[in-house]
Amino acid sequence: MPALRGTLALSVALFLVTGARALAQDPASVRTVDEATVVRRALEVSHELREADARTRQASADTLSAVGDVLPDVEISARYTRLSDVPIDFRRIDLGEPGAQYELPQLLDQYALRAALVLPVTDIPFRFVPMLDAASTAERARRVEQTAVVRSVVLEARMAYFEWARAVAVAAAFDESIAALRAQLEHVRRAVVAGTLPRVDLVSLESQLASLQQQHLDALEQAELTQSALCVRLAWPECEAMTPAEETAQTIAHTTISDAIASARAMRPELTALSLDLAAIGRRRDAAMASLLPSIAMVGVLDYAAPHPRAFGRDDLTPLLSWELGAVASFSTGAAFDAAAELSRLDALQAQLEAQRDRWVAEIDESVRGVLISCRRAAERVELARENVRLAEELAVVRRAERRAGVSLEAEARQAEAALLRARREHAEATLAQRAAHARLEHATGVPADELAIARRGVVGD
Fold first, then answer.
1. C-alpha separations of 260 from 361, 365, 441 in Å
2. Residues 135, 66 contacting (CB under 8 angstroms)
3. pLDDT, tens only, 68-83
4. pLDDT of 74-129, one tens digit each?
5. Helix 129-194 vs helix 410-445: angle between axes, to the nearest 10 degrees?
6. C-beta pairs of 189-197 under 8 Å, 24+ apart in sequence
7. Can you name the residues that pair with 93 across neighbouring β-strands?
8. Which of 75, 130, 274, 368 qualifies as a cystine partner to 283, CB 3.0-4.6 A?
9. For the domain 2-81+106-457, what is the CATH code?
C-alpha cells in the first residue's frame, strides 16, 4: 500500500508538469494521451506508410498486367467508309473486247468487321504463367513489407511516447521534491527564528533547494523537448495541454532466448518479404529460360465485310464471312541474348538477397538476445525500485516520528524524505524503461503490434 500511494502521488504529479502554458490552464482542459492514441495517430500521418502503400499499389498493377499476358490476345475492329458519288458514269466500261461489256458497281458504303485471336501455345505455360506467379508473389512481398513498415512506425511512436513520459515523470518527481523541501524550509526557518536550530541548517537547506530547482529546470526542458518532438512526429499543431497516461509494468512474453529467436525468424515480416522476393526471382528465371526456346502461337482471324476483299469485283456484293486459322513458330536471337542477360541479372540479384537474408538473420538474432536480456533486467529493476520505495517510505515514517519526539536530527528527516522522493522517481523511470524494453522485444520477435490499427489501414500480413 505505501508503494501504491507513492505511485499514485507520482501519477498525480505528472499532470502538473506539462509546460508553463499547461500549468496556467484549467486542469480539466489538460488532455491525457496514452500509448494507443499515439500509435493510432502515428499510423494515420506516417509518410513511410503512405510510401509503402504506393509500392503495394504499383505491385498490384504489375500483377494485373501479368494477368493480361496470360489471357489470349483478342483484337476486334470495325470499319465503315462512305465514298462520295462520282459524277462520271463508270458503271459501264468497254474493256476492248468486241461485244463484251462489264458492269462495275459504284461502292458508296463500305464496312468491315474483323476479329483476330492469337493464342501463344508455348509462351502461356512457360513464360506468362511464371511471370504471373512472380508478379503475384512480389505483390505479396510488398504487402508484407507494408506490415513491416507499420511495425516500425508503431515502435518509433511507442519509443517517442515512452521517452516523453519518462521525461515528464522525472520533472514531476523534481517538482514534488521541491514542494516538500519548501515545506521543510519554512519549518526550519521558523525554528531558526525561534533559536531552536542553528542558521547553518537553514543555509544548507536553501542550497539544496537551489540545486533542486536547477535540476528541475533541466528536467522541464527535457520534457518540453520530447513533447515537442512527439507532436512533430504526430503532426499535432496544438499539444501544450497534454500529459501522459499512467503506465504499468508488463510481463515478458518469451521466457527463453531460443523461443524468442525462433519467433523472430518465423514472424518477422522483413524475412518473410525477403523469402517471397527470392521465390519471385525463381519464377522469373523460369520465364527467362523459356525465351531461349522457339515459341509457337495459334492465330485465328474472322472477317465479315461488304465488299469482301476476296469477292471484290464480282457482281454479287452481299456481305461475306471468311475465316483463317494458322500456326506460327518463331525464334529471335535478340530475345535469346536478352534472356541470357536477364538470367545473369537474376542470379546476381538472388545472391544479393540471400546475403541480405543471412545478414538480417544474424542481426535479428543478436537484437533479440540483447533486447530479451534488457527486458529481464528491466523487470528486475522494477522489482528493486518497488522494494526501494517501500523501504524508503518506512524509513521516512520512522524519521518523522523520531523528529517529532526529538530523538533524531532535522537533517536525518530531510535525508529520509529526499531518499523517498528519489526512490519514487527511480520506480517511475524503471517502469517506463521496462515498457520501452517490452515494446522493443515485441518488435524484435515479430509479435503483432496494434492489430486494430493495422486492419484499419488495410494491411494484411502473409
1. 13, 9, 9
2. yes
3. 989 999 999 999 988 7
4. 999 999 988 776 655 544 555 555 555 555 556 677 888 999 999 999 999 999 99
5. 180
6. 191/410, 197/410
7. 102
8. 130
9. 1.20.1600.10
